[in-house]
Amino acid sequence: MSRNKNKPSLKTFFIKLFAITLALIIVINMSFNLIVGERLEKIDKIISLNDKEERDQFKNKIRSEITKGLEKDRLLDQKDAELLYKFFIKVKNEIQQAKPN
Fold this sequence. Notes:
Largest sheet: none
Order of helices and strands: HHH
Number of strands: 0
Shape: elongated
Radius of gyration: 30 Å
Distance between the termini: 104 Å
Number of domains: 1
């Protein structure tokens, strides 16, 4: 009689084990696709710059962004402009100090 009691519980155990395993595989797959998959697409796009069509699309995108920027009144925020100016002055001073006399 004890053998009959173990068989249903063992069968139930394997069904639960299979269901939990399947659920874990689905959860891991979905989280991988949501988190890593999007980044992998971007990396693939960067790597595919060997293809002439991809390079042309990339160049056209840069050109369109530059055109949009030139249509604006100001390209930089005031804080960014001040920061770049300070950086430029510092680089200029260092270059002047590096000149041979």
